[in-house]
Every structure is written in structure tokens, then in C-alpha cells.
TrEMBL record:
Family in the record: Belongs to the metallophosphoesterase superfamily. Purple acid phosphatase family.
Signal peptide range: 1-22
InterPro entries in alphabetical order: Calcineurin-like_PHP, Metallo-depent_PP-like, MPP_PAP, PAPs-like, PAPs_C, PAPs_N, Purple_acid_Pase-like_N
EC number: 3.1.3.2
Domain of life: Eukaryota
Enzyme class label: hydrolase
Domain Calcineurin-like phosphoesterase positions: 140-330
Keyword set, alphabetical order: Glycoprotein, Hydrolase, Signal, Zinc
Protein name (Swiss-Prot/TrEMBL): Purple acid phosphatase
Reactions catalysed according to its record: a phosphate monoester + H2O = an alcohol + phosphate
GO terms assigned for molecular function: acid phosphatase activity; metal ion binding
CDD domains named in the record: MPP_PAPs (cd00839)
Length: 435
């Protein structure tokens, strides 16, 4: 009798647990987050952020309202002592009735790996502090796309700040300015505490386009404010580029740049892949905005054309991991290629859940596709720790009641260690040699 009661109790607990999981209420979008405005001198640096700019170099970007402010960065390894100084370039733009401030881009270096530097922009203002990435593995990336400027964005940024990461990866949709240019300024102020301390490597999304037929070309604001190392990687467009850090080669592609087999982006991608040395960088990671593998009802099929063009090339190159945004939810796939499970395919992760103003995409297609491993419509961020040349640990952290709750994780084995890179070496060579 006691055993029977025990079994009934256990079954009831399991049932209640399952019901609780099924009844999890996903959070609603929060209102736009506003930082308090403090009057500063016109030459005062604002919206400071940094990005990788070639081997042992960092690009420091900031904006001033004073067009005569110098584009110099003083820096050193001790607080208040600046042993080095670099001078950079400037740009600005006008957009209808809006005129940007003076946008400064200054490259500093060479910098020592895994070291703290103190720096000051324009010869005045506050002192900032950054840490350079390590020279070798392990390395940790924070990942969050479709950020925006809501209360959920602030929550996501707070959680990322708790993560001991080296580089932030953002697969598109930054400010959600959507033509209202001063929102680019407020976004820059919002992310400055994090983006001035660790490099932010971004690619464009649909909310960065902001084109006006016959009046304004696309990506004017994005390209002016968020200059990435495209020139350093042999690209002629800020919309796609690559960089290497520790033992990882990362390719940032443009979902909104031409990508067919005759496009400049495709030609650049082939050239870039031909230079990848999997002994020096055993991990190959790719980011773009529109996901190729998506079982959410939102944005179904939007990545199909890019996938048809580029997936065979990335498969031949043995890309380990593909990160995308656009869909305002989280989803992780098994290793997949051409919509079929493949041990030499990529793991695809959709992480467009940073906190945007449009809210979540809560509806999924059922039954769940065989390639889809985990999916949930919640705000959050991801953390990718590349431990060594063979193993990486991925985790996704849901923003639950303003606490970062780890809700999904997996160990990923590199395709170099599984033999796939060697197995497909001839296939890659043939792809790269095809005119």
C-alpha cells in the first residue's frame, strides 16, 4: 500500500512538473529603455565602442558633437598613464533633417594578448578600460542578436556583463532605429559600458537597411557608425568580412548583400576560405542575419536563396557552427546539411532574442523537424566557450524574472577532430577552383 502511494505521489509530481513547463508564460515586450540625458561639452566622446581590426589591433569608435575634436586615442597599460597615441579617420552623414556628429574611427596597436589597456578618446573625457582577447584557446564569446533598446535589452546586457567573455558576436539588428536617426545615438549610449570594454563584432540585419528610394542608399547609418575589419580581411564591403581570434576563424556574411555564385560576396567568401588554415584555427564559425534552418512560423523560407547558394560551399569548408538572428526566438539544430542530418554538417543556432521592441515569435511548426534539437520563444543570450581544438561548450540563458537562467547547453565536437575536414578536403578544393 505504501509503495502504491509512493508511486502515485511520484506520478503526480511528474505530471505537475510537465504541466508547469508546458504552461510557461513567455514574457511580453517591454517599453523602450531610456537613459537619462546628461549635458556634456560638444567635444566630449560618446557612444564609445571597440572592435577587432587585424592582428593585435583594435578599432576605437566614438562620436563628438564638435567637428574640430581630434581623432586621437591615448592608451597604455597603467591607469592615467598613456604611453602611446594613435590618430584615426573621421566621417559623418546626413539623413533627411538629421545630421550626425563627427564619427571617429581610430586603430590602436599592436596590443599584447589577454591584457588590460586604459585609453582616452580625443584627449579628454573619461578613461575607458578594455581587455584584449587571448592568443590561444580557450576563448569565450557572448552572442545576442536583435537587441533593440527595450527593458529586455537592458536585462540581456546586464546578463552578458556577468559573463566572463572575450568578444561579443551580434548577428544583425542592432538599434532598431528604423529611420529615426537619434535612436542610433541612444543605442550607442546604451551599449557603451559593454562595447567600450570588449570588442563587439557585428553584421547587418534588415533593420540596418534604412534605404529611401531615390534619396538614401541602404546601410548609411550602419556603415558610418559600425565600421568592421572588412578591409583587413580583403573585402570591399562593410557588410561582409572575416577575422581570426585565438584558434577561431569567424566569417560574417551579409544576408542583405548579393550572395549568388556570381556576386562579389560569394567570390570574396571563396577567397577567404582558401586562406583558412585549420591547423592554426581549427574552428570555423559563420554569422549572418536570416537563418537557413528555422522551424518558427516567423520568416519562413526567407533564407532559402542564400542557403541554396552558399550552404554547399560552407559544407565543403566544414563550418562547425552557424549563428543567425532575425527570428525573435531561440532554436538549436543538430548537425545538418541540405535539411538532412549529417555528421559533417553545421550546428545552426537562431538567437534573435536579445530584447527587440517587436516582441517574441511564439509559434512553431509542428511536428518539430528532425534536424531541430531545441527551441523556445524567450528573450536571452548565448555563451560559446571554445575550450580547445576539439571541444566547445554552448549554453543559452533565458531572461527569466531578470535572472539569466541556463535553459539549453551542449558540448560540440569540432569537425577537424571528427575527420570531416580531411574527408572533404578535395571537395573544398574543387569548390574553390570552380570559376
Amino acid at each position: 500500500m505504501e509503495l502504491k502511494l509512493l508511486l502515485i505521489t511520484v506520478l503526480m509530481m511528474v505530471s505537475l512538473s510537465a504541466t508547469a513547463a508546458a504552461d510557461y508564460i513567455r514574457p511580453q515586450p517591454r517599453k523602450t529603455f531610456h537613459l537619462p540625458w546628461h549635458s556634456k561639452p560638444s567635444s566630449y566622446p560618446q557612444q564609445v565602442h571597440i572592435s577587432l581590426a587585424g592582428e593585435q589591433h583594435m578599432r576605437v569608435t566614438w562620436i563628438t558633437d564638435d567637428n574640430s575634436a581630434p581623432s586621437i586615442v591615448e592608451y597604455g597599460t597603467s591607469p592615467g598613464r598613456y604611453d602611446s597615441v594613435a590618430e584615426g579617420e573621421t566621417t559623418s552623414y546626413s539623413y533627411l533633417l538629421y545630421s550626425s556628429g563627427k564619427i571617429h574611427h581610430t586603430v590602436i596597436g599592436p596590443l599584447e594578448h589577454n591584457s588590460v589597456y586604459y585609453y582616452r578618446c580625443g584627449g579628454q573625457g573619461p578613461q575607458f578600460q578594455l581587455r584584449t582577447p587571448p592568443a590561444q584557446l580557450p576563448i569565450t564569446f557572448a552572442v545576442a542578436g536583435d537587441l533593440g533598446q527595450t527593458g529586455w535589452t537592458k536585462s540581456t546586457l546586464d546578463h552578458i556583463d556577468q559573463c566572463k567573455y572575450n568578444v561579443h558576436l551580434l548577428p544583425g539588428d542592432l538599434s532598431y532605429a528604423d529611420y529615426i536617426q537619434h535612436r542610433w545615438d541612444s543605442f550607442g549610449r546604451l551599449v557603451q559600458p559593454l562595447a567600450s570594454a570588449r570588442p563587439w563584432m557585428v553584421t547587418q540585419g534588415n533593420h540596418e537597411v534604412e534605404s529611401i528610394p531615390l534619396l538614401k542608399d541602404g546601410f548609411l547609418s550602419y556603415n558610418s557608425r559600425w565600421k568592421m575589419p572588412f578591409e583587413e580581411s580583403g573585402s570591399n564591403s562593410n557588410l561582409y568580412y572575416s577575422f581570426e581570434v585565438a584558434g577561431v576563424h569567424i566569417i560574417m556574411l551579409g544576408s542583405y548583400a548579393d550572395y549568388d555564385e556570381y556576386s562579389e560576396q560569394y567570390g570574396w567568401l571563396k577567397e577567404d576560405l582558401s586562406k583558412v588554415d585549420r591547423e592554426r584555427t581549427p574552428w570555423l564559425i559563420v554569422l549572418f542575419h536570416v537563418p537557413w534552418y528555422n522551424s518558427n512560423t516567423a520568416h519562413q523560407g526567407e533564407g532559402a536563396d542564400m542557403m541554396a547558394s552558399m550552404e554547399p560551399l560552407l559544407y565543403a569548408a566544414s563550418a562547425d557552427l552557424v549563428l543567425a538572428g532575425h527570428v525573435h526566438a531561440y532554436e538549436r539544430s543538430k548537425r545538418v546539411y541540405n535539411k538532412r542530418l549529417d555528421p559533417c554538417g553545421s550546428v545552426h543556432i537562431t538567437i534573435g532574442d536579445g530584447g527587440n521592441k517587436e516582441g517574441l515569435a511564439p509559434k512553431y511548426i509542428n511536428p518539430q523537424p528532425i534536424w531541430s534539437e531545441f527551441r523556445e520563444a524567450s528573450f536571452g543570450h548565448g555563451e560559446l566557450q571554445i575550450v580547445n581544438s576539439t571541444h566547445a561548450f554552448w549554453s543559452w540563458h533565458r531572461n527569466d524574472d531578470d535572472e539569466p537562467v541556463k535553459s539549453d547547453d551542449i558540448w560540440i565536437t569540432s569537425l577537424t577532430s571528427s575527420g570531416c575536414v580531411d574527408q572533404k578536403r578535395n571537395e573544398l578544393r574543387n569548390k574553390l577552383m570552380t570559376p
